[in-house]
Each structure stands twice: as C-alpha cells, then as structure tokens.
TrEMBL record:
Pfam families attached to this UniProt entry: MiaE_2
Domain Ferritin-like, first and last residues per copy: 10-191
Protein name in the entry: Ferritin-like domain-containing protein
SUPFAM superfamilies, per the entry: Ferritin-like
CDD domains: Ferritin_like
InterPro entries in alphabetical order: Ferritin-like, Ferritin-like_SF, Ferritin_actino
Domain of life (superkingdom): Bacteria
Native species: Arthrobacter ginsengisoli
Length: 223
C-alpha cells in the first residue's frame, strides 16, 4: 500500500518525525546493547551483544543518511522523542543477563513489526529503508537461539522471563500508541481523520501483540 498525501508538506513533516523516532530508537538500541554486555556470563556472549550493537548503529547511520538527504537536521529530528524513549528504557531496566537478552529480543521484534506496519503508508523509497533497517533476521535469530539455549539449560527461567516479556510488550505497546497519537503518524501520513487513524493504530497494535504471542509460544513461553 502506498500513500498519496493530499498535503505533501504535511506528509514531509510527519515523515521527518517518523524517521526521527526510528533513528533515536536505533541509537538507543546501540547504547543499550553496549551497556548490557556487561551482564554477559562469558566473553563469547559479550561479543554477541557487541556485534548486535554494531548492527544497530549501522541502522542509525542509514536513517540519518535519509534525513540528511531530506535536508533535515538529524539531532533536531530525534530530540522530540528522546524523553519518552529514555523514560521507556528507564522503566524497563533489566536485572540480569537473561532479562537483557529478552528485552533485546522483544524490543527488536516488536519495533520491527510496528514500523513495518506503519511503512505500508509511506512512499516506496522510505518503505524500502524501513524494511532494510527492521528486517535483520540474522540478529533476531541470534537472540532467539541464545534465549532457547538459556531456557533449555535452566527451565526455571521460563516463568520469570515470560512475565518479563509480558511486561515489556505492555510497555512497548503503550509507548508506540502514545507516540503514534501524539505525532499523528498514521493520520498525517495518509490524510485520515482522527477516528480512522485510531482504528488503524489499534489494528496495528493487535497485529504486533499477536506476532509477539506467536514468538513467545515458539520459545516455549506464554507471551
């Protein structure tokens, strides 16, 4: 699905905001993974998170390049989203290595689902960028496989990580809805009225939650 905005200037403004929040999300993911590596039980695991952090920074650079091409200041585009994203990460600070792994996995996959859903309503070039940034299956597979190994090694982790994943999903969906409504992402991108925008966002949230539940089931957890 592509968009044909009635007001190109407004569309451009909403697109800047969308790329701004994605850019800050990627930069924050880089910082979070780099920091969380300190929980790693082995040097191998520390290197795994380090590689994932590098991938997130490369994604940040891709989105920054797009903003530059739009003649938009990258820092200015990110700043409106810094307080809410930082607050989200403060509220969901992991207690140990296993919670760090689960947080990285949940936030990586939920964010990818959410932004891919929104990208249905943007121009083809931006949609391709979002797909490129959010479709790193290799990184996702590394996190999933490491979680499976941890759960197999210590089945007692299952109930704790299931609760943690459920909390992360709730916080992530609340954050996504708030950002969507405050910045009118869907309405601004497709020119929909408030009622239609809210309907579309609720549909996106249901889709994201269903995908998360499926992934938790695949891990042997109740999502």
């Amino acid at each position: 699905m592509s968009t044909s905005p009635a007001d190109p200037a407004s569309y451009y403004s909403f697109l800047r905001d969308l790329l701004g929040v994605i850019a800050y999300g990627e930069l924050s993911a880089f910082e979070r993974l780099s920091s969380d590596a300190r929980y790693s039980p082995t040097l191998h695991d520390r290197a795994v998170l380090g590689r994932l952090a590098v991938i997130e920074f490369r994604h940040y650079e891709l989105v920054s390049a797009k903003l530059d091409a739009m003649d938009q200041d990258v820092e200015a585009a990110m700043l409106p989203f810094q307080p809410s994203v930082d607050h989200f990460h403060e509220r969901t600070r992991p207690a140990d290595w296993y919670e760090s792994l689960m947080k990285a996995y949940v936030i990586d996959t939920v964010s990818a689902d959410f932004y891919r859903a929104i990208s249905r309503y943007v121009d083809a070039g931006t949609r391709a960028l979002v797909e490129q940034v959010q479709a790193d299956e290799g990184a996702t597979a590394v996190l999933r496989d490491r979680l499976r190994t941890a759960l197999a090694d210590d089945p007692r982790l299952a109930s704790r990580l299931a609760l943690w994943a459920r909390r992360l999903l709730g916080e992530a969906l609340t954050q996504a809805q708030r950002v969507s409504f405050e910045h009118s992402f869907v309405g601004g991108l497709i020119g929909a009225d408030e009622e239609r925008s809210e309907e579309l966002v609720r549909g996106m949230m249901a889709e994201v939650a269903a995908n998360h539940s499926r992934r938790m089931t695949e891990l042997g957890l109740t999502g």
